[in-house]
Amino acid sequence: MSVVNHVVNENICVISMANKPVNALSKAIRVGVIDAMTSAINNDSVEAIVITSELALFSAGADISEFSGGDLSPMLPEVLSVIENSPKPVVAAVNGGAFGGGLELALACHYRVTVKHNKVGLPEVHLGILPGAGGTQRLPRLIEPAKALQMIVSGAPTPVKSISELFVEIVDAGDLLATAIKIAKHSVGKTIPAANLIELSQSAEIEALFEQTRQQINVKMRGFFAPNKCIDAVKAAFELSFEDGLKREGELFMDCMKTPQARAQQHFFFAERAAGSLPKIAKDTPTRDIQKVAIIGAGTMGGGIAMNFANAGIPVVLLELEQVALDKGLALIRKNYENSAKKGKLSQEQVEQCMALLTGTTTYDDLSDVDLVIEAVFEKMSVKKQVFEALDKVCKPGAILASNTSTLDLDEIAASVSRPQDVIGLHFFSPANVMKLLEIVQGAKTADDVIKTAMQLAKKIKKVGVLVGVCFGFVGNRMIEVYGREANRLILEGATPERIDKLIFDFGLPMGPFTMADMAGLDIGYFVRQSRKEFIAHDPSYCTVADELVEAGRVGLKAGKGVYLYEQGSRKPISDPQVMEIANRKAKELGIKQRDISDQEIVERCIFPLINEGANILQEGIAQRSSDIDVIYVYGYGFPVYRGGPMQYADEIGLEQILARMKHYEKSLGEYGKHWFTPSPLLVELAGKNKKFAGYKA
Ligand code: NAD
């Protein structure tokens, strides 16, 4: 069957796109639409044309895999020009989602009809580019300019009812084709209302709209290149003729397309999709049915994790040993839901529905019917083992036993039960009901069906699951340890926390390492260091200022004081000169010479060793692919998506460069450098071959 079909019936030609799975506008479909349009235009018995889709979506837009090369002719704008300039009226019957080029195709048609509850959008900005097939010129001509601008700049899917002016009619799905044909018949012999015939003009109001949108995106989309170019393109629709506007759009599209940001964002688009695939697991592996979940420990993480399942409609039983702790945990969950309701994100009815799915218990006997248990008790091996031994006794055969441990050896936990094949790590990030990342930790004996079930479950609770292997800190925290270590060392060498935080913020992370540590609680790192003294024994400078702060009760935001000070009820960090006094004293004691450190050195020393650790992780097979590390860093730590994640960032600037700088610090930082800046063997190997992390297979 062809990817584009057309039939003529009662003088109407219906062209339908059928390029499975999502009608990506690849070359075959572009050629097919031009051929079908040409045939309809040349067929004297055809008076009007309807374009629709045979699939659930109208079209998801461009075939992004073509961006990296291939035969692009005919380009989409050529196809749209044939449609728009057709002497016979063309009606788009938008039966499902129309995104990017898919919506641009509908905009080039003379009339549109769609179905209730449908959504359409121009998501190109998420790929670091802008709609390049006339979307920025046609949309503001067809709907309110403010709405058009918002759609293009945000890339968000928009409910058709909020842009109803774009459609002649919005009907029930069953009536769509008949309505489109009716509109087509009515339009015969009438003036064709093509978007390119509409003239837009500038006004003070429009100018103000552009200015206001620019200010908004400079805050909301800080650091991104494409959103401002989107504004420039829409502005051109008001300043230039349609033809010149299209040209300008094309130039701006190319400006975006050749940036590292576009490469990074397109890399990330594929990275996110690749993360879900499990090539080492047979496709026909069955999954286990998860109807009911238990969470052990209703603390910070347990409560948040429970909310994810309740939100997905899955009943959860929470276990604490003491009723007081259980009541506290449940009350906190209710408070979180009530806060969402106050903000209008949930109705009171939804709050009650979620709460009704959550029950508490203080006895393990109540866990005999659950399909999955997630343990989120204190981070102590002896406590974890006690919990797993208790679970082994009461849980039914086939129940998945998961741990939310951040640092402990999952295989040791699994060894404490009679069914290690059912044990897996489900490492949620805090706040667990908000953060999208889920590291799925595969133990030495974890069964394939357990891994596949966990990956599927991640999607169900709206998380991005990434499979990782067992090691200290898994992928995310193992890498962040390196970053935190360098930030802490830099203050001993004379850089202030404020300066380091500002530079990392400017690099694109949501906050710098010290603000983040204060938020997470300095005590978390402290306890980890206490349990890993052998790891740092040779380096007395290791996080020594942070240790002193914790020992003085300065554990961060929750205490009102950490690296920074906080006024009651405020999360805004206030500088405290005392911290640098501690750093200066410690530096003297340790014989560390303080000096002026360049901005470049600060950023490189925080980011490059983190990348180097990523290389080790990749070589050890702890991550399946380098793009998985990028997904973990973007979703778990706010690494700017416009840099694509740390590994893509390294690939972009070149592994040779990273290696050269690692070697530089290895030498220039004396004993410290010798120990902590050893280049990863994989980095050395790939840089030597002029290769990238992308595509490396352990
Ligand atoms: P928490 O102290 O807030 O909560 C732990 C809860 O477990 C407490 O309510 C405690 O009463 C309960 N508990 C302790 N022993 C128990 C037992 N034997 N049976 C039943 N309940 C018991 O701790 P948290 O921050 O929620 O951390 C829990 C786990 O999640 C740890 O393994 C931690 O490493 C991991 N984790 C924490 C974070 C974070 O940012 N806080 C992030 C990811 C993972």
Describe this structure in words.
The chain has 698 residues and is an alpha/beta fold. The chain contains 29 helices and 17 strands. The strands form three sheets. An eight-stranded mixed sheet has the order 12-11-10-13-14-15-16-17, with helices on both faces. Strands 1-2-3-4-6-9 form a six-stranded mixed sheet, with helices on both faces. A hairpin with a 2-residue loop joins strand 1 (4-9) and strand 2. The radius of gyration is 29 Å and the shape is globular. The model has no long low-confidence stretch (mean pLDDT 97). It binds nicotinamide-adenine-dinucleotide. Residues 296-302, 319-321, 325, 376-379, 383, 386-387, 404-406, 428-430, 520 line the site of nicotinamide-adenine-dinucleotide.
